[in-house]
Amino acid sequence: MIFIVVSRNVATGIWARWSAAPIRDDTDVGRLTTSALDGAITFQIKEASLSQLHRIAIIGAGHVGATAAYALMLRALVHEIVLLDEDMALASAEAADLSDANALARPARIWAGTYEDAARAQVVVVTAGAATHGSETRLSVAARSAEIMTACIGSLMDAGFSGVLVIAANPVDLMAQIALRASGLKSAQVIGTGTLLDSARMRQALAALVNVAPVSIDGFVLGEHGDSEVAALSTVRIGGLPLATFASAGTEPDFATLATDVRDAGYTIIAGKGYTSFGIATAIVRICEAIVRDEQAVLPVSTLMTGELGISDVYLSLPCVIGASGVERILPLDLPPMELAALRGSAEVLREAFTQIAPTAYPPS
Description:
- With 365 residues, the protein is an alpha/beta fold.
- It has two domains: 55-194, Rossmann fold, CATH 3.40.50; 195-359, L-2-Hydroxyisocaproate Dehydrogenase, Chain A, domain 2 (Alpha-Beta Complex), CATH 3.90.110.10.
- It has helices at residues 8-20, 50-53, 63-75, 88-102, 115-119, 142-158, 172-183, 196-210, 243-249, 258-273, 278-292, 337-361; strands at 2-7, 32-37, 40-45, 55-59, 80-84, 109-112, 123-126, 164-167, 190-192, 217-222, 230-238, 241-242, 297-306, 312-323, 326-330.
- The strands form four sheets. Strands 6-5-4-7-8-9 form a six-stranded parallel sheet, sandwiched between helices. A three-stranded antiparallel sheet has the order 1-3-2.
- The termini are far apart.
């Protein structure tokens, strides 16, 4: 436990600020309690490494990793951002470019570091993996990405990491499961970005169809982040109304192609610019924010199934409560038979794919 003792006058001002707003930014070092002590006030902070609580590391300084670092900097979520890449010149250049931009933003230290630097972070984001080109699916690059993931996680764990992993390399569900095995961490500490971005895409598409703001729409895409994903329209609420009720209350939109459009959105972007970056980077930052600020936020992310909806031993996306420990719990869903069957089918696709790449990721000793 760490104690900070200040005068009563100083403490009064500090306490007024802390009690009037949620703990965030550079004061995010723990929950506070106060006690009178000889005319002074003692702020009691839960024991933690201050450098750990204020540091996020990103392994992979390509389009996604660099964009995520930029978004983290603009969000002013942490004081330190570490970039790692096999190409140290690239990591150093991106860090220097970000540091220049940071002169016009909230202060943060941004540098190209080592696995030892990353091991001291509360959250490590892994974007390093094989890129998807042309008509390649996310699953088709799995073997190449698995080798990269295993090597990165091995180096990180050798350096003593014990925080939360956020996996963003594709195919993300398989890579999260590879990372779980390679790290030896608890499954709650290994999170895949999963269908968080897909769910945002669905909300965006629905918003355009029914002419309301995306923020007024709730709903989840479930299962694989990929071709077998399930746009669970039964989970959609628009202003609190189920989708069917909302549609019948006005002009009924055509939802027939929505799931396909959401599923193929990433491929469409890749066809035009060669890669995706902004959407997935924002999803990464949203997950990191929920962890660093211990928000207990409900987000659809990829996590290990342990019997939920009859599914076990595979990573896929369901709505999860995300806090400082990672996945705090998985929320139960009451899905209609068609969506439940599709979700279980998605699980089997992922299970078969993992069986095929596991020998590559874990060669016989």
